[in-house]
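seq as requested:
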Amino acid sequence: MKNWEKKELVRDLRGQGFSYKEIGQKTPFTISKSTVSDWCKDIELTSVQKERLNDLFRDGNYRGRLAGSKATQMRRQKEVDDIKEKARLEIDSLTRDKLKLAGLMLYWAEGNKKHHVGVSNSDPEMIRFVMKWFREIYGVPDAKFKVYLNIHSGQNELQIKEFWSDVIKLPVS
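struct tokens:
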């Protein structure tokens, strides 16, 4: 069977609403779930097909896998949160020389180097750190900061400005 024939068969089975595992069982060849996923990512299932797949996950042997993956996800999130907290504590206790060096590395990686001095990033912790660096190492007064935000349509402008105002410790105005 040629590759395009395999792909056509897999896509046809998915269009009928079969799960990736079922597709693997129904094909006369071995195929990974990731390949099925890649080949079928644009296929939209009907609400009836989606409900059938949801029932499979809730009832059959998928239930245990789902619980296991949820437990793994929660464990990993706790590990990430713990690492972030340790890093935050380390950053808060940096000596002046280490703060200067860390800020220079950050600026080298994330800083604007053409027309003005600045840092562009959407991570509040990183921006908090960079503001501390500008203030404590270089003595930049608050009046010298110019803040630019990319706000997309449909977003709450005031809420976003207030959030970032709190992060950088500057008034919204």
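Strands lie at 111-112, 118-119.
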